[in-house]
Specification:
Rossmann fold, 5% strand, globular, 12 helices, 4-stranded parallel sheet
Length: 328
């Protein structure tokens, strides 16, 4: 990974030491692991997790200089996550589509005369497809909500309705996956949209930050309630990660968090920018998000958060996943 050498200096996320050692171990040799910790990496979400589904459906959007249909300038966080878990990324296991809301709407509906799926549609498509091997050993990623905000802003929907509908849809998504055999579900909350260049250009930064925080508080409580009902989830706090990168950019190797790279002056390097366009992060920011995802996986399965000999980490995670499943 091209930014890993800088991560040791700039990361301020949990379990940094164990995480860096894990990354080194996985990059060193996949043969050291007895098997992948997860049978599949199943992905449901929007443009933050889409590696080309919207591009194919829309007939070529977003075009270059976006990278191979991604809403980014390079690999995105789920691809970095696959690499860090020593897993081969499988595009067929990614159902995320740019513009997806948490429900059945898509913010891009009507573009090119087509309708596009929302999060619940993506899960329905997965449920109707051929069964995957060892579904209980797969890691299921649920990432959506930002487009609910964009739709709500355009339609002047009330914050109360936005939060209630979005959280209820996300809970429904988790429940549907659980009913399909999922037992390892990673849920990402809504990133801090208030720090995006779009929000700042509209003069809505503080308001959007506050609304995202309120949404995530309700989402967190809903997921706690699900856990009490016997459906646990692993949490990925994208709100905190993006906020930290925006508020302490030098710690992450960024020098520009206000202007998207696509609007930068000639000769600029995207490596210095937090945002690729007005709302989507650069590949460097995606890498940081993936590092945090691995940290949360280690924290979920290991009381010591992955501390130990580097060469044993991937095998250890594999064993911890198995042990967790056997207890249920």
């Amino acid at each position: 990974m091209k930014r890993t050498s800088n991560l040791i200096q700039r990361m301020r996320l949990p379990a940094v030491a164990g995480l860096v050692l894990l990354t080194m171990a996985l990059a060193g040799s996949r043969a050291q692991a007895k098997s992948d910790p997860f049978s599949h990496l199943m992905i449901f979400g929007d443009s933050l997790s889409d590696t080309g589904n919207y591009f194919l459906r829309s007939g070529g959007t977003p075009p270059a200089p976006y990278a191979d249909g991604r809403f980014c300038n390079g690999p995105i966080w789920v691809e970095y996550l696959s690499t860090q878990l020593a897993m081969d990324y499988q595009p067929a296991d990614n159902f995320a589509v740019g513009g997806a809301t948490t429900g059945t709407l898509n913010s891009n509906d009507g573009f090119a005369g087509k309708q596009y799926p929302g999060l619940l549609d993506e899960i329905a498509t997965f449920q109707a497809s051929a069964a995957i091997s060892e579904p209980e050993r797969a890691l299921y990623v649920v990432e959506a909500g930002a487009n609910d905000f964009f739709v709500a802003l355009a339609s002047q929907e009330s914050p109360q309705t936005l939060i209630a509908d979005g959280v209820n849809n996300t809970v429904s998504a988790v429940q549907r996956l659980w009913a399909s055999g999922a037992r390892l579900i990673l849920v990402m909350n809504v990133p801090d949209l208030g720090v995006t260049p779009m929000a700042k250009s509209l003069g809505m930064g503080p308001q959007l930050t506050g609304l995202c925080a309120a949404y995530n508080q309700v989402l967190g409580q809903a997921l706690d309630n699900l856990a009490e009902a016997g459906i646990p989830t692993i949490r990925l706090d994208a709100f905190r990660v993006l906020s930290e990168m925006a508020n302490t950019p030098a710690a992450y190797g960024f020098s520009n968090v206000a202007v998207p790279f696509l609007l930068a002056s000639a000769g600029s390097s995207p490596d210095q920018f937090l945002f690729w366009d007005s709302v989507h992060p650069t590949t460097g920011a995606h890498e940081v998000l993936a590092e945090e995802a691995v940290a949360q996986l280690l924290a979920a399965f290991s009381p010591s958060k992955g501390n130990g000999k580097p060469e044993a980490k991937i095998n250890g995670l594999n064993g911890l996943v198995n042990a967790s499943l056997h207890r249920r």
